[in-house]
Amino acid sequence: MNSMQRMRELVELLNRYAYEYYVLDDPSVPDREYDRLYDELKQLEQESGEVLFDSPTRRVGGEPVKAFSRHEHIERLYSLDKAVTEDEMRAFFTRVEKACGEVGYTVEYKFDGLTMCLTYEEGKFVRATTRGNGSVGEDVTAQALTIKSFPLSIPYQGTLEVKGEAIIRLSVLENYNKTAAEPLKNARNAAAGAIRNLDPSVTAARKPEIYFYDVNYTSEPFLHSQSEAVAFLKEQGFKVFGFFEICTGGDQVLEAIERIEMSRKGLDVLTDGAVVKVNEFSARDTLGATDKFPRWAIAFKFEAEEAVTTVENVTWQVGRTGKLTPLATVSPVELAGATVRKATLNNFGDILRKDVKIGSRVLIRRSNEVIPEILGAYEHTGESVDIQKPLFCPYCGAELFEEGANVFCPNKKCRPRVAAALANFASKGGMDVEGFSEMTAYQLIDVLGVSNFSDLYSLDKEKLSRLEGFGDKKIKNLLGALEKSKQAPLDRFLFALGIDGIGKVASKDLAARFGSVEALSEATAEDLVALENIGEKTAANVVEYFSSPENREEIGRLFAAGVSPFVKKRAEGIFSGENVVLTGTLKNFKRSDAQKAVEERGGVCQSAVTGKTTLVVAGEAAGSKLDKAQSLGIRIVDEEEFSKMLQ
């Protein structure tokens, strides 16, 4: 046997032992035997100068990286909508069953760590990324390679994306903190900090693991349910948590959630809820997704930890729209492993309803274990004083006005309003000016007098060099990002303008319908309300925005500075002029590939059947969308005819 053959034998043997130890928790050899074989492999690699792609020696942390590069996921990684009451869960079941009839559900633990996406090609691990915004994440391959609980090679030979949660066991965290120079407060932050640390040796020292729970993409669509996907993950050697239940109907789901809540405190892993998914992928296709969440899954979050603390002060923050939000400073209190010093109250009406006063003791909760929230007064003291509703803006002195339960600053040049508007303009959902933050906005306002979006495009090296912390490299990067942002898609430009009520979904609808800023500026409220995601209030906001001479002049200045929002020209082809809905399971097409094929041939894909739908492509087990199309007399084709149309 030559050295290469022996290396291959050792790699397969060591990977099998690692799988038994880290995934099955059932080692078949003592540690000293594993170490002996590992040392032999390392010696052979040093002598030959070769390291096999799936060698366990690759899992040693390498040199620190300078920065994380961005990576676009093949399929979007959705976050989940949340429920905290049984009524909210029942509403979810009702929505699902209205659309699909009786379906199966799966119930799993919701672990509290960092979502990861791992990519494999031709059976080889090639990349690990964070979820990021769902479409683009950070490449953390170097960090992930230090984790021993996932395979470097798998039997499946196609392209594969799998989803998992990076966690740190509570016992591991406890041991780490015994010798750590800076102890870590909770397992969630420890896991996120381990993966998103530029130094892989820090990742290795914290000993994270990954529990896998989803198949995000396969190059061949052969999975038909969540239960099949989980079985596939196990077959490929991924670590899957033992609790996985298939339920029929909402009552069984709620019983499974109750079992999770009863047992979770005994786990060595931090968990904050249960994840409920529709099992059958065909039903998921019928349900579709919103811009943020899939309609076929929901996370049930367990009741958050609560504590009592004292309100020390209340200040008022001014946001982009001028709305003032009360922010309470409280005596420091530990909740879910974090120290809470501030809590947001919604508005003055919320203060009155909850009877919150400065100097009073209040019940505080980290809502869904994330956002600090005051639930209400716990005890008033002799030092308690009422919180006064502000009459004038604390930042610019302008007289405030009331609208409903909220108070607003009317001054569009109010410093925090301008900073928030600039940050929104430069955000990823807007003009995507990389490296721009609200802190940068405040510096530009205070030192350079920036107040309009268009002012950003008159910045130069000489001006930026006056800002603290802006060296040559940072200046070059910001100017480059601003120049790049001039060529932005129209929907992102509309979002960046900050028109009240225009989010990512509405901005895409407006861009697709009107095609230019000029056409949109001439639209009437009636034109706008006709769109699926535009209500009367939002329509009125759009009309009011474009009727303002000040706003029109600002848009003119942006265009004069070279900003040129564009709409991607629609391709021409057999689907030109068609509004297409895909429903049911297609045997030979992944849903995203079928959608791409339609769009490449001039069509528009819709998520639901409406009066504007002109064509429905119905696969197997097509549900309510097919029924609605039939009732409306819309043309329907099966997969065979769809394939012929593509040819």
Please give a handful of descriptors for the protein shown.
alpha+beta, OB fold (Dihydrolipoamide Acetyltransferase, E2P), D-amino Acid Aminotransferase, Chain A, domain 1, 6 domains, 37% helix, globular, Helix Hairpins, 647 residues
Structure description:
One of its GO terms (molecular function) is metal ion binding. Keywords: DNA damage, DNA repair, DNA replication, Ligase, Magnesium, Manganese, Metal-binding, NAD, Zinc. By secondary structure, the protein is an alpha+beta fold. It has six domains: 3-59, Orthogonal Bundle (Helix Hairpins), CATH 1.10.287; 82-301, D-amino Acid Aminotransferase, Chain A, domain 1, CATH 3.30.470.30; 306-408, OB fold (Dihydrolipoamide Acetyltransferase, E2P) (Beta Barrel); 415-485, DNA polymerase, domain 1, CATH 1.10.150; 490-560, 5' to 3' exonuclease, C-terminal subdomain (DNA polymerase, domain 1, Orthogonal Bundle); 579-646, 3-Layer(aba) Sandwich (Rossmann fold). Helix content is 37%, strand content 22%. It has 24 helices and 24 strands. A five-stranded mixed sheet has the order 2-11-10-3-9. α6 packs antiparallel against α7 and α12 (415-426) crosses α13 (438-448). The longest helix is centred in the N-terminal third of the chain and has 21 residues, at 3-23. It is globular, with a radius of gyration of 28 Å.
